[in-house]
């Protein structure tokens, strides 16, 4: 329900506790019935949150009874997968997904694989469907909702074609087919324009000049269910598990930790000091940083400058890009992602948080500091979100929507108010209900004070008597040690979203990112999507050490051989050649609308964020409004989706981009829609409707 309570005012009025959270983890089960049309006869747009991992943990309970929040309902992970023997959820829909690989070269020969690969010497079932559709002359649409979108395009085309098609109704075609025929007949129709734009603007067309022509205009990857990790890679993984040597970090569980919070909350300072206290930064570096900060008249930024090394960051006194450092605590090998807090750099923060397993949320505890970072009632810009709405709120919402479940809330700067326990408790009392409504379990949150500049409560208990007198909880290092490392998702095709492209000291073009699924070794065949650029892994480095193997969960620098380097861009995805990530222009997504003042309408311009990719686009259809309590369709084709509402919409991007259904790969199936520096909505991809060439 919009206009909730507490800190956010965004969500359903019901708070939920851990028990309820577990209930809404089963929320997706409600959608299972929709696979059977008879079970939900009134339903035409069916939400399809599905999962492919692991057995179910507990019996289904209606989320309605649980009273879960709208964000939780919309975003939290759906229940784990059924076991074998039962059809995978979404299998039907997935087979229908269409993907486009402009100028796709022939597939690289598959690795040793127990599954007999399809030779592409005869038409595949998909090719047959395609040919059939081309004979019929229609664009391929998948779900009911997409069909509606197709019809809209076709109608637009028919409209543009004037009365020609309307004047010849007796040609034996359905209304939709007439529309599509008309759409093909005129250059100004919406469908053709969209197709043209895909061709003209796709990454592949823009960058693969001279590439061999595609063997076929479109290729689908093999079904996910057929994937088996190659035996040699499996052996290497088992060996790496035994020795704990590959992927860096020795035998300690690996964590990807992002530092979030409003601008100037103290993130870089705290992390700079933490690295020092853990012995990773020597006195010489600290001295150099102190000197540079003092010379620039910004002495208080000395610790922050250990991480903020770029000249513009030092000039502005704010973090611009995500700084990556690595360190070890007693129990964990940590890849630290220090995200920018300034609202101008939220896209960079999204790229950082998308790779993280857990987060530290820094909250400024100084008088007025917390309020400035959390306020959403500041003056309006006249459109969209409040102009100065705090990034504490936005970061927490984005972090949860990007899959982060474990978080430590670090209240900084309490030295400015005499280490007041009352201030600590006041902030916690406001923030906790908001975080619960956002979808965090209370048991997955830690609360602690820390002072970066003096190192209070970073490693070991506080020494400041005024703080030690009332706080006996975890230090920052303890909180990090308590985070659970994510499971390595190795039994899936390779996925590594490219976060950064840079020249190595040896002059080679390196790509860097976190392997989200699968495994690769030196010599592995890979493909870069978009562009369908095939190559071979030449070198792998983790923690600045050469490694032979990179598994899901490892952050690695990779160089590729035999690849057109112009295809290596942030937002592209390194994939297994036989199971590439879908490349689409449109996504259907179930979203929660955040703190917007003006509802989302059809045609709304957005920047679509998915993993490390960003594309311009627009909301091309509002498919349904969902009931906040039950998740069922409350209204088909609503005119608008307002603040706090959950709905299904379709976004069309200006160019093709790589994304997948959340039910297949969670990390690549989460999206955020932003416009004008504000996050409008967050959600998960439920379908990939797409026109075929
Ligand atoms: N008194 C006090 N000052 C602090 C504390 N933590 C940080 N500061 C100061 O706050 C200012 C901003 O700190 P940064 O570490 O740059 O903040 P940030 O959150 O990293 O900023 P962005 O990355 O730009 O969002 C600096 O002047 C710090 O010295 C603290 O616990 N107490």
Architecture overview:
With 693 residues, this protein is an alpha+beta fold. Helix content is 26%, strand content 22%. The chain contains 20 helices and 25 strands. The strands form five sheets. Strands 7, 8, 9, 11, 12, 13, 15 and 16 form an eight-stranded antiparallel beta sheet that branches. A six-stranded mixed beta sheet has the order 2-3-1-4-5-6, sandwiched between helices. α7 (144-160) packs across α8 (175-185). The longest helix is centred in the middle third of the chain and has 18 residues, at 421-438. Residues 1-219 and 378-388 have low confidence and may be disordered. The structure holds guanosine-5'-triphosphate.
List keywords for this structure.
693 residues; alpha+beta; eight-stranded antiparallel β-sheet; six-stranded mixed β-sheet; 20 helices; 26% helix; disordered N terminus; binds guanosine-5'-triphosphate
